[in-house]
Structures are given as C-alpha cells and as structure tokens.
Amino acid sequence: MKNMIHMWNQISLVVRIIIGIIIGVILALTIPEAASWISILGSLFVGALKAVAPILVLILVMHAISSHKSGKKTNMKSILGLYAIGTLSAGAVGVIASFLFPVTLKLTTGAEEISPPEGVLEVIRTLLFNLISNPIDAIVNANYLGILTWAIVLGFALKNAADSTKTMIGNFSDAITKIVKWVIDLAPFGIMGLVFDAISKNGLSALKEYGQLLILLLGCMFFVALIVNPIITFVFTRKNPYPLVLKTLKESAITAFFTRSSAANIPVNLTLCKKLGLDEDTYSVSIPLGATINMAGASVTISVLTLAAANTLGIEVDIWTATILMFLSAVSAAGASGVAGGSLLLIPLACSLLGISNDIAMQVVAVGFIISVLQDSCETALNSSSDVLFTATADIAKKRKKGPIA
User: Fold this and answer.
1) Helices (DSSP H) in 296-371: which residue ranges?
2) Has this prediction a pTM greater than 0.90?
3) Among 312, 314, 333, 375, which residue's Cβ finds the most Cβ atoms within 10 Å?
C-alpha cells in the first residue's frame, strides 16, 4: 500500500488531476447513481481550500511583513500596475469583441430576489467597510480585504518584536504551508468529485440555448489569456512569455476552473510562486491581493453582457460611451469580490450607464447565472492564473533591470 501511495505521489500533480477528471467523467456517464457518493469529495476539497486560505493569508502576510528587512524592496507597485493594465485590457477586449460580434439575449426571469449595488459609490463603500472589518468576522466570512488589512497592520506592528516572536510566527507560517501542501495533494480526488457532480447533474444542457453568448464570452477570455496577457508580459520582460503563461494556466487555471473560487485557489497560487522561485515577501501579499482586485475575467463578463443587453434592446452605443463602459467594467470588476454574487451582480451597475432599467438588467443577471457553469469557471481560471503571471512578470522585469549592473 505504501509503495502504491509513493508511486502515485511521484506522478506530476497535473497528470494526477487529468486522471481524476477522466475517472470522474467515466463514472458520471456510466454509473451516476451508484457512484453518487463521489460528489462529496469535490465539496470536501473546495471546503478544505476555503477553510485553510484565510488563516494562510493572515499568517503568511503577517510573517512576510514582520520579518521584512528595511531597505529590501518589493515589487508591489509594479504588480499593482500590471493588475490594473490587465483588468483594463480585458474590459477593452470585451467591448471591442461585442462590437465586432454582436449578440442578443433571450431574456428570462429568476433574478428578482437578488439585490445588486445601486452605484459605484455603494461598491466603494462596501470595499471600505470590508477593510475595517472585525478580524474574526473577516476570517469567518473569508473577507480577504479585511484579512489583508489586519495582516499588514499586525505585520508592521511586529517589525520590532523579539526574534523569538518572529520565529514563532515563522513556524506557524511553515506549519500552515505544510497543511496547504497536504490539501493540494488531494486535488485529483477533489476535482474528480467536482467533475462527476457537474456532469451527472447534466449541468451543461442549459447552455445550448446561449451558445453564441458563451462562445463570445469564452473567446474573449481565451484571447486575454493567450494573446493579451502574453503581450503585457513580453513588454515588461522582453522574453518569450509563453513558457510562463502556459505554466500558470496549467498549474493555476486548471484548479481554479473546477473550484470556481479565487479565494480557494490562493494556496495553489502561493505554492506555484514558490516553485517559480519568486520573492516570498512579494508574492505572499500580491497573491491574496490579486484574488481580491485582479479580475480580468470579471471585466470581460461585465462588458460583454452589458453590451449584449444593449443589442437586445436596440440601444446604439457610441465610441465615447463604449470607452466609459470599458473603464467602468474594469473598476467594477476590481470591486467584484466585495459584493455578494461576484461579477454578475455588477452588471446592473454597468447597464445603468446605458439607461437600461433595473428590471431588464436583473434578467441579464439571470442569464448570467444560467451560463455560469462554464462562464464562472473560465472567469475564475483567468483571474487566478493572472495573479501568478503578473507577480512573476514583475519579478522577471526587476531581475532584467538589474542584469547589466551585475
């Protein structure tokens, strides 16, 4: 038995995940009722990731800041700039693609009970209140803005603490990191359960009616992942970006696609950053921050669905309004994690720019929930993998600038 476990662990994690996906598909198509218990593995895996992520972020960020030596520079300014460029570029792709390939919606009902934010000020207000949330409440509710705030404040407060205190925090950080590794090793079984659950419930059948919209949405996301992000990376690194892009897609996007949670994918991204040899002082802050504000996929979703609603109602959108929508999509996307329901609930905010009533906008939200089986998965995969990509891009760019001096 030990030999089998050892052999299994020797196989690449990605290969093990692919094996899990294949087994999940086969079981869902052949014996869905007899193997129904397998779906619990998916729920347990996502639950474990969500459970460990808040504590991991708190301890890791607090440790990184408290042990940071004065004079040692991090890349946070560059990374924040890359996050902004990436999210804005994604919004532009969504707007341009919607003009080139206009789609209309078959509006439905079913989102009347959802309460979207009434304006940009409400989104900002929510974000600000999340910043000053009670620390226990922030951890319990996985409010990563609140967790980051407390981790940063405690980290700076502990900078002058005794070495023994910093060592203890470091030991906690190592212990949590080890627990995360154990959880991630279970990814093949968890993803097998997630795939089985999705297929056995025939979740994809509802997508046929909205095929054209899905193709446009997913096409934009793939374009951002495989064309736009590589261009941004190349501009900053002056190196072939695709080895790094494909590695982040393979090792971050795959798990994010199935967990459908940027927060749950934080441990996966932190492990990948360590594997890439990035600066821990930087990535321990940039990854959880990216899971909160780096939302290229959400920017695409907001812009595409808003313009699809405009096309459905025959509303003509001029170039200036489209430009404003591009920026509004990017800003709204950055605030998506602070609003219950994510990017879909920010569509009414964007629709209001075009004079679309809230009743119609909420029907668009309902369409979004119908196609979210694929839309939300791809959106999360793009959001999460971009966090690692831009963190690594900033690190490579920094080393490139130091190169000639060395």
Assistant:
1) 296-313, 319-334, 347-353, 358-370
2) no
3) 333
